[in-house]
Amino acid sequence: MAEKRCYTVAELQEILGVSRPTVYSLLKRNEFRWIQLDGGKYRISKKSFDDWLDKQPSEE
Questions:
Q1: Is residue 39 part of a domain?
Q2: At residue 41, does pLDDT exceed 80?
Q3: Which of 6, 29, 54, 59 could be a cystine partner for 43, CB 3.0 to 4.6 Å?
């Protein structure tokens, strides 16, 4: 099976432990690359998101 190249909004909610509106806020700020499909669904670039996440300051 091919490795996933995109995340869904629900997957980002789970990964980050945040609400749906928070994910949409990140999308609006163009923190990472994403596309909007027909029907209004979003797909977020896995590589772009993973790179962004790796650059976030850790809470210690």
A1: yes
A2: yes
A3: 6
